[in-house]
Amino acid sequence: MEIAKLHQLFLNCNAANTDTRKIKLNDMFFSLKGENFNGNKYAAQALDLGAKYAIIDEPEFKTTDKTILVENVLKTLQNLATYHRNYLKTTIIALTGSNGKTTTKELINTVLKQKYNTTATIGNLNNHIGVPLTLLSMTKKTEVGIIEMGANHQKEIDFLCNIAQPDFGYITNFGKAHLEGFGGVEGVIKGKAEMYNYLIKNDKTIFVNLKDPIQIEKTRNANTFSFGTNKANINIKFIKASPFVFCTLDEILIKSKLIGAYNYNNIAAAMAIGKYFKLENDIIKKAIENYTPTNNRSQIVKIDSHNIILDAYNANPTSMQAAILNLEKQSGNTVAILGDMFELGDEAKAEHQNIANLAESLDIDLVIFIGENFYRAEIKSIKFKSFDDFKNEYDIKSIKPSTILIKGSRGMALERILPLF
Question: Single GO cellular component annotation (predicted)?
Answer without folding.
Answer: cytoplasm
